[in-house]
Amino acid sequence: MAISELNSRQSTHPLKITIMGSLQGTLNGQNLRKNKAYSVNHINTGRNVININSVNKQTKNLFPMLFSLTSITGFLFGLPTKDSLDVIGFNLLGAQFEVTTNVQFSESRHFLTIKQKFTGIKEKEKNIACEIEVNGEVPDMNFGSNAFVKPTEIEYKSVGLGKLKSRYTQSLTAGPNTIMATVDEEIEFMECEYHQFDARFSEFKVALSKISILPTAQALRFTLNSQIFTKAPREDPCKSALCHPLSTCQPDDAGSYRCLCRPGYQGNGWNCEDVDECYERTHDCHADAHCINREGSYECSCADGFHGDGRSCEAVQQRVETCRELRNCHEFGECLYDHHYNRYQCVCKPGFRGDGYHCDYESHHHDYDCSANPGVCHHEARCNFDHNMRRYTCQCLPDFDGDGRACVKKNCNSHPEICSVDAHCVRQGYDFVCVCNPGFHGDGMHSCTYIGGVETSGGDEKLVYAQGMFLGEISSKPYHKESGKYISYTPGQLAVAVDTNCANHDIYWTDASHRCIKSSRADGSNVKTVVDHLSSPEGIAIDWISGNIYWTDSGTDMIQVSKLDGSNVKTLFSQNITNPRAIAVDPMRGLLFWSDWSRTFPRIERSNLDGTERKMVVTDNLGLPNGLALDLDSQFVCWSDAGKKKIECTTYEGRNRRVVHQDAGYAFGLAYHSNMFYWTDWERANVVKTASKHSSLKEDIGIPQGSSGKLYGVTVAKSSCPHGTNPCSYKDGGCRYLCFASLTGGRTCACPDNISEEDCHN
Predict the structure, then answer these.
(1) Which residues pair with residue 130 across a beta bridge?
(2) Which domain holds residue 391?
């Protein structure tokens, strides 16, 4: 909708646009009810007035600290200038966008987060709808009759598709007191990925002046004047272009430019990254060659036993041992010289057919009936009459697979259904066997009898969950009023994922709002920041044996690792990642798993703990894989899918996929322990529990009364660590910085990002 449609007055009157909405959240621990908030903006004069009503006595001296609300109104509806080409922020953003403002008050530790969500134009009232949420701590001071903010200049810069950022300082004066604040603001809006970029609108400057704050009995008013400018390029627009170093700038006739990523790179020109032709299978390497990705290109190298340029490979002629040396012909075959191919090869004897290495009776031969030749059947097979074929054939016994002449014992890896309902499949040497679940006894296949001693419903372990500013603890028992407690509360925090270190019971979690990883003791005391200066940390996993933390960052699209104290940060993956979410580790087997909920290619991947041997585990029939959990005994990786509303599992290799629960709602976090699954459901606002076998049943586990907000991550606070170890458990495996266990039972040492390879190994 155009601006003119928002106002029906004649052009001789000031063009007035109203924003209507509400303000809620917490300030200094006090809950704010939905206060009515609105602003009146005069575009023809650049005059903006913001009103917040129903302000009570307890928060009267706190609301003036929300003076950073004035910046977005100035950007949207500041007085347009010739330098801005008569363009205001509303022309760029429209009426649907989100603003996140983080305010750090100087000379104090107070920190405030303001989130404004503009949801569109109300057709009937002809105004813009907006919801404001504030959370954090602000200085408390007596403002008296009024206060004012020093004139402020704010520069907004485009940092990517649909994203503007600014950083500026403001000072508030009330009587003899002055408070300084540093403000970081980010605007996210819908922008067409394929629009032609116009450099004239990549940077804006907003000038705010005459900013005053007038508190009344039950309301607060901000008034200000605003102007908006653009920074149009002069002469050659590419001189000040924002193109990525791996792109080229192309000026156009309109005085603007376009950024195009160089060949071998992909992106929108502002951001370009290497195209991994090998990973995406867009290379032209020969089928008998290896593809090696290079920065901006790739190479093809013929595999061992082949020669060529990689795009054309031929087998290296070598002397091949024939059946004369190998003596590998079937008992009904013989090794004869073939003059056509000029070599010896196996040929079936008369009356038999096949390739010589495996020979069957011909149908017309009188010895085809196995009843007349019982010796042709395998010792684990029987000669039975086949009514369909109207003859006797060799048939493997029920616990074996094969054609009757060769039979191998079935295992639960390829036939999971052979295990008892109260058993699971585990690797034993080079084979797979069925083992009864804890509390049961039997052969694992035909019977598992309950012998007691273990609760089949998962026992009474404690669960730790993340809920925005809160971390909570609840029992794994079904819902009851006194089922849990709050462990910690941090104003302005957004706790997303949580995990515990079973070795000392410390809790670790990601804080997306403060862009860091935090930790505390099991009771919530001694909260400290472990890793900071992140972008948007989400998933977290603790390797309790090696003493490492793994996490995903959806802001930088990276997977990183550090020691438990936050030292020695190392980036494992920064390419071919779109929206990394959950992460999980199996330190005994040296494996790392993570989910990527890319809208176009959702997937679950794995690698070794050091980032080598990356491979896909699940790529099909996924929606929004949010949570991950590992069944360490059975070697299954399981996930919660909010798009498909399912809980599913598959083996570490991606085989034998099964659905645990069909109706999981909008599942986010996921945990597994003692044959039980626990997940957070945004639709039910509770933690949900179900058995891994009897998946049709589920129970709600209540959270403490009075809590609000979405439930994010959940984990089991195990009373003891799983059995198992790895070479990194003793003195970091002899490594100087980072030790990673490997799948083969060994270990690798690695260097952190901030230390060169040369310094690392000196």
Answers:
(1) 21, 118
(2) 369-409
